[in-house]
Amino acid sequence: MNRHFLWPAALLTLAAWGQTLEVPGNLPAQKVGPDDLIGVSVYGAPELSRTIRVGADGRMSVPLVERKIPAAGLMPAQLEIAIAAALQAAQILVDPKVAVTVVEYRSRPISVAGAVRRPLTFQAFGGVTLLDALTRAEGLNPEAGPEILVSKAQKGPDGAPTTLVQRIAVKGLLDAADPDLNLRLTGGEEIRVPEAGRIYIVGNVRRPGAFPVRDSVESSVLKILALSEGLLPFSSDRAYIYRREGALGGKNEIPIELKKIIDRKAPDVTLLANDILYVPDNKGRRATIGLLEKLLIFGSAAGAAGVYAGTR
What is the helix (H) or strand (E) element at residue 203, kind and residue range? Predict the structure, then answer.
Protein backbone atom coordinates (compact mmCIF):
# COMPACT_ATOMS: atom_id res chain seq x y z
CA MET A 1 0.00 0.00 0.00
CA ASN A 2 1.24 3.47 -0.81
CA ARG A 3 1.91 5.00 2.57
CA HIS A 4 0.71 8.40 1.37
CA PHE A 5 -2.87 7.22 1.25
CA LEU A 6 -3.25 5.66 4.67
CA TRP A 7 -0.66 5.35 7.38
CA PRO A 8 -1.63 3.25 10.41
CA ALA A 9 -1.34 5.21 13.62
CA ALA A 10 1.19 2.73 15.06
CA LEU A 11 3.44 3.05 12.00
CA LEU A 12 3.19 6.83 12.20
CA THR A 13 4.16 6.70 15.87
CA LEU A 14 7.21 4.55 15.12
CA ALA A 15 8.26 6.75 12.22
CA ALA A 16 8.09 9.84 14.38
CA TRP A 17 9.73 8.23 17.40
CA GLY A 18 12.86 10.12 18.36
CA GLN A 19 12.53 12.43 15.36
CA THR A 20 13.26 16.11 15.94
CA LEU A 21 10.94 18.44 14.06
CA GLU A 22 12.90 20.92 11.95
CA VAL A 23 11.13 24.24 12.36
CA PRO A 24 12.01 27.31 10.30
CA GLY A 25 12.66 30.62 12.05
CA ASN A 26 9.53 31.40 14.03
CA LEU A 27 8.10 34.91 14.32
CA PRO A 28 5.65 36.06 17.01
CA ALA A 29 2.32 34.33 16.56
CA GLN A 30 -0.51 36.41 15.15
CA LYS A 31 -3.26 35.88 12.63
CA VAL A 32 -2.09 34.66 9.25
CA GLY A 33 -2.76 36.83 6.21
CA PRO A 34 -2.34 36.80 2.42
CA ASP A 35 1.25 36.47 1.14
CA ASP A 36 2.59 35.31 4.53
CA LEU A 37 5.17 32.49 4.35
CA ILE A 38 4.19 29.55 6.54
CA GLY A 39 6.43 26.71 7.72
CA VAL A 40 4.47 23.43 7.82
CA SER A 41 6.07 20.39 9.47
CA VAL A 42 4.36 17.00 9.63
CA TYR A 43 5.81 14.46 12.06
CA GLY A 44 7.00 11.35 10.29
CA ALA A 45 6.28 12.77 6.82
CA PRO A 46 9.23 14.90 5.70
CA GLU A 47 7.88 14.90 2.14
CA LEU A 48 4.88 16.87 3.41
CA SER A 49 6.97 19.31 5.43
CA ARG A 50 7.83 22.55 3.64
CA THR A 51 7.33 26.30 3.55
CA ILE A 52 4.17 27.44 1.81
CA ARG A 53 3.18 30.94 0.72
CA VAL A 54 -0.42 31.90 1.49
CA GLY A 55 -2.14 33.05 -1.69
CA ALA A 56 -3.58 36.48 -2.33
CA ASP A 57 -7.01 34.93 -1.74
CA GLY A 58 -5.99 33.93 1.81
CA ARG A 59 -5.81 30.20 1.05
CA MET A 60 -2.83 27.86 0.89
CA SER A 61 -2.05 24.62 -0.99
CA VAL A 62 -0.86 21.60 0.99
CA PRO A 63 0.81 18.68 -0.83
CA LEU A 64 -1.58 15.86 -1.83
CA VAL A 65 -4.62 17.83 -0.61
CA GLU A 66 -6.79 18.74 -3.59
CA ARG A 67 -8.64 21.68 -2.06
CA LYS A 68 -6.84 24.78 -0.83
CA ILE A 69 -7.07 25.39 2.90
CA PRO A 70 -8.42 28.77 4.12
CA ALA A 71 -5.60 30.29 6.20
CA ALA A 72 -6.20 34.02 6.44
CA GLY A 73 -7.50 35.08 9.84
CA LEU A 74 -6.31 31.94 11.63
CA MET A 75 -3.73 31.82 14.39
CA PRO A 76 -0.88 29.34 13.75
CA ALA A 77 -2.35 26.88 16.27
CA GLN A 78 -5.73 27.02 14.48
CA LEU A 79 -4.03 26.50 11.13
CA GLU A 80 -2.31 23.40 12.51
CA ILE A 81 -5.74 21.93 13.28
CA ALA A 82 -7.07 22.89 9.82
CA ILE A 83 -4.12 21.29 8.00
CA ALA A 84 -4.30 18.13 10.13
CA ALA A 85 -8.03 17.84 9.43
CA ALA A 86 -7.43 18.25 5.68
CA LEU A 87 -4.73 15.55 5.66
CA GLN A 88 -7.00 13.21 7.58
CA ALA A 89 -10.06 13.96 5.40
CA ALA A 90 -8.00 13.23 2.27
CA GLN A 91 -6.99 9.88 3.83
CA ILE A 92 -3.32 10.75 3.61
CA LEU A 93 -2.61 10.22 7.32
CA VAL A 94 -4.70 8.64 10.05
CA ASP A 95 -3.62 10.85 12.94
CA PRO A 96 -1.45 13.64 11.53
CA LYS A 97 0.68 15.71 13.87
CA VAL A 98 1.24 19.14 12.35
CA ALA A 99 3.31 22.09 13.52
CA VAL A 100 2.92 25.53 11.92
CA THR A 101 5.30 28.45 12.23
CA VAL A 102 5.32 31.85 10.55
CA VAL A 103 8.55 32.30 8.60
CA GLU A 104 7.75 35.68 7.04
CA TYR A 105 4.93 38.18 7.41
CA ARG A 106 3.88 40.13 4.33
CA SER A 107 0.24 40.72 5.11
CA ARG A 108 0.75 43.55 7.62
CA PRO A 109 2.85 46.25 5.95
CA ILE A 110 3.30 49.63 7.61
CA SER A 111 4.85 52.36 5.48
CA VAL A 112 6.44 55.55 6.78
CA ALA A 113 7.10 58.32 4.25
CA GLY A 114 7.49 62.06 3.94
CA ALA A 115 9.60 64.26 6.20
CA VAL A 116 11.37 61.45 8.08
CA ARG A 117 15.06 60.61 8.11
CA ARG A 118 14.69 57.11 6.62
CA PRO A 119 11.42 56.28 4.82
CA LEU A 120 10.68 52.56 5.01
CA THR A 121 8.09 49.81 4.95
CA PHE A 122 8.10 47.06 7.57
CA GLN A 123 5.79 44.34 8.81
CA ALA A 124 3.76 44.77 11.98
CA PHE A 125 4.08 41.94 14.45
CA GLY A 126 3.85 42.10 18.18
CA GLY A 127 2.85 45.43 19.69
CA VAL A 128 3.67 48.27 17.27
CA THR A 129 2.79 51.90 17.98
CA LEU A 130 3.08 55.12 16.02
CA LEU A 131 6.17 56.09 18.03
CA ASP A 132 7.72 52.69 17.24
CA ALA A 133 7.17 53.32 13.53
CA LEU A 134 8.70 56.81 13.70
CA THR A 135 11.67 55.40 15.62
CA ARG A 136 12.25 52.83 12.88
CA ALA A 137 12.26 55.74 10.41
CA GLU A 138 14.92 57.41 12.61
CA GLY A 139 12.60 60.26 13.57
CA LEU A 140 11.37 63.39 11.84
CA ASN A 141 13.67 65.51 9.75
CA PRO A 142 13.96 69.29 10.20
CA GLU A 143 11.47 69.90 7.37
CA ALA A 144 8.61 68.11 9.15
CA GLY A 145 5.33 69.93 9.55
CA PRO A 146 3.05 70.10 12.58
CA GLU A 147 0.94 67.01 11.75
CA ILE A 148 1.35 63.31 11.06
CA LEU A 149 -1.23 61.66 8.79
CA VAL A 150 -2.09 58.01 9.50
CA SER A 151 -4.34 56.42 6.88
CA LYS A 152 -5.74 52.91 6.63
CA ALA A 153 -8.09 51.28 4.16
CA GLN A 154 -11.19 49.75 5.69
CA LYS A 155 -14.81 48.94 4.96
CA GLY A 156 -17.45 51.60 5.52
CA PRO A 157 -20.86 51.02 7.16
CA ASP A 158 -22.27 49.94 3.79
CA GLY A 159 -19.40 47.54 3.17
CA ALA A 160 -17.81 49.74 0.53
CA PRO A 161 -14.04 50.34 0.79
CA THR A 162 -13.02 53.62 2.35
CA THR A 163 -9.92 55.17 3.87
CA LEU A 164 -9.74 56.42 7.44
CA VAL A 165 -7.26 59.29 7.90
CA GLN A 166 -6.22 60.39 11.38
CA ARG A 167 -4.34 63.64 11.97
CA ILE A 168 -1.87 63.47 14.86
CA ALA A 169 -0.33 66.66 16.26
CA VAL A 170 3.45 66.33 16.45
CA LYS A 171 3.66 68.45 19.60
CA GLY A 172 1.03 66.39 21.37
CA LEU A 173 2.69 63.10 20.42
CA LEU A 174 6.33 64.01 21.00
CA ASP A 175 6.39 66.93 23.43
CA ALA A 176 3.26 66.28 25.51
CA ALA A 177 3.62 62.47 25.21
CA ASP A 178 -0.15 62.10 24.96
CA PRO A 179 -0.78 58.32 25.08
CA ASP A 180 -4.05 58.70 23.16
CA LEU A 181 -2.08 60.00 20.16
CA ASN A 182 0.38 57.09 20.16
CA LEU A 183 -1.82 54.91 17.96
CA ARG A 184 -1.54 51.13 18.04
CA LEU A 185 -0.75 49.84 14.56
CA THR A 186 -1.89 46.45 13.30
CA GLY A 187 -0.69 46.56 9.67
CA GLY A 188 -2.02 48.21 6.56
CA GLU A 189 -1.34 51.74 7.84
CA GLU A 190 0.34 54.40 5.75
CA ILE A 191 2.11 57.04 7.84
CA ARG A 192 2.97 60.27 6.04
CA VAL A 193 4.71 63.25 7.56
CA PRO A 194 4.06 66.30 5.33
CA GLU A 195 6.73 68.94 5.13
CA ALA A 196 6.04 72.24 6.83
CA GLY A 197 4.64 74.99 4.67
CA ARG A 198 7.03 77.79 3.79
CA ILE A 199 6.95 81.54 3.52
CA TYR A 200 9.43 83.13 1.13
CA ILE A 201 11.05 86.52 1.52
CA VAL A 202 13.18 88.00 -1.26
CA GLY A 203 14.54 91.35 -2.33
CA ASN A 204 16.26 93.98 -0.23
CA VAL A 205 16.71 91.95 2.99
CA ARG A 206 19.84 90.62 4.68
CA ARG A 207 18.98 86.91 4.51
CA PRO A 208 16.40 86.11 1.84
CA GLY A 209 15.08 82.59 1.60
CA ALA A 210 12.33 80.21 2.68
CA PHE A 211 11.21 79.88 6.28
CA PRO A 212 9.04 77.00 7.52
CA VAL A 213 5.62 77.58 9.02
CA ARG A 214 5.24 75.26 11.99
CA ASP A 215 2.63 74.64 14.64
CA SER A 216 -0.50 76.75 14.48
CA VAL A 217 1.19 80.04 15.31
CA GLU A 218 0.46 82.74 12.76
CA SER A 219 3.35 84.14 10.79
CA SER A 220 3.45 87.82 9.93
CA VAL A 221 5.49 90.38 8.04
CA LEU A 222 7.40 91.45 11.15
CA LYS A 223 8.20 87.87 12.15
CA ILE A 224 9.52 86.98 8.71
CA LEU A 225 11.54 90.20 8.59
CA ALA A 226 13.12 89.22 11.92
CA LEU A 227 13.98 85.75 10.57
CA SER A 228 15.57 87.35 7.50
CA GLU A 229 17.70 89.55 9.81
CA GLY A 230 16.03 92.78 8.73
CA LEU A 231 16.16 95.16 5.79
CA LEU A 232 19.15 96.31 3.83
CA PRO A 233 19.68 100.07 3.38
CA PHE A 234 17.61 101.92 0.80
CA SER A 235 14.57 99.64 1.05
CA SER A 236 11.27 100.82 -0.36
CA ASP A 237 8.55 101.97 2.01
CA ARG A 238 6.17 99.61 0.26
CA ALA A 239 6.48 95.81 -0.08
CA TYR A 240 4.36 93.23 -1.87
CA ILE A 241 2.85 89.90 -0.93
CA TYR A 242 2.30 87.44 -3.77
CA ARG A 243 -0.33 84.85 -2.93
CA ARG A 244 -1.98 82.12 -4.94
CA GLU A 245 -5.74 82.24 -4.63
CA GLY A 246 -8.35 79.57 -5.34
CA ALA A 247 -8.11 76.08 -6.80
CA LEU A 248 -6.65 77.36 -10.08
CA GLY A 249 -3.80 79.08 -8.26
CA GLY A 250 -4.27 82.56 -9.66
CA LYS A 251 -1.65 85.06 -8.50
CA ASN A 252 -2.73 87.94 -6.31
CA GLU A 253 -0.48 90.92 -5.56
CA ILE A 254 -1.10 92.55 -2.19
CA PRO A 255 0.74 95.85 -1.56
CA ILE A 256 1.58 96.63 2.07
CA GLU A 257 2.92 99.77 3.73
CA LEU A 258 6.11 98.24 5.07
CA LYS A 259 7.56 101.37 6.71
CA LYS A 260 4.31 102.08 8.56
CA ILE A 261 4.19 98.48 9.83
CA ILE A 262 7.79 98.70 11.08
CA ASP A 263 7.07 102.10 12.72
CA ARG A 264 3.93 100.64 14.36
CA LYS A 265 1.73 103.09 12.51
CA ALA A 266 -0.10 100.27 10.73
CA PRO A 267 -1.09 96.80 11.93
CA ASP A 268 1.15 93.83 11.17
CA VAL A 269 -0.01 91.68 8.23
CA THR A 270 -0.56 87.92 8.50
CA LEU A 271 1.30 85.71 6.05
CA LEU A 272 0.13 82.31 4.86
CA ALA A 273 2.08 79.24 3.76
CA ASN A 274 3.53 79.66 0.25
CA ASP A 275 3.28 83.46 0.36
CA ILE A 276 6.14 85.42 -1.21
CA LEU A 277 7.06 88.67 0.55
CA TYR A 278 9.02 90.88 -1.84
CA VAL A 279 10.86 93.96 -0.58
CA PRO A 280 12.09 96.15 -3.49
CA ASP A 281 14.61 98.98 -3.16
CA ASN A 282 13.59 102.64 -3.10
CA LYS A 283 14.66 103.25 -6.72
CA GLY A 284 11.32 102.03 -7.96
CA ARG A 285 12.62 98.99 -9.87
CA ARG A 286 10.76 95.77 -9.21
CA ALA A 287 11.18 92.16 -10.18
CA THR A 288 8.23 90.45 -11.82
CA ILE A 289 6.37 87.66 -10.05
CA GLY A 290 7.53 85.29 -12.79
CA LEU A 291 11.18 86.02 -12.04
CA LEU A 292 10.61 85.64 -8.31
CA GLU A 293 8.98 82.25 -8.74
CA LYS A 294 11.71 80.98 -11.07
CA LEU A 295 14.40 81.91 -8.59
CA LEU A 296 12.51 80.32 -5.73
CA ILE A 297 11.99 77.08 -7.69
CA PHE A 298 15.41 76.73 -9.30
CA GLY A 299 17.60 78.74 -6.98
CA SER A 300 18.55 78.88 -3.33
CA ALA A 301 18.49 81.65 -0.77
CA ALA A 302 21.55 83.09 -2.48
CA GLY A 303 19.73 82.95 -5.80
CA ALA A 304 16.77 84.73 -4.30
CA ALA A 305 19.11 87.44 -3.09
CA GLY A 306 20.06 87.99 -6.70
CA VAL A 307 16.54 89.21 -7.40
CA TYR A 308 17.48 92.56 -6.01
CA ALA A 309 20.74 92.80 -7.92
CA GLY A 310 19.07 91.56 -11.09
CA THR A 311 16.57 94.41 -11.10
CA ARG A 312 19.09 97.19 -10.97
Answer: strand 197-203
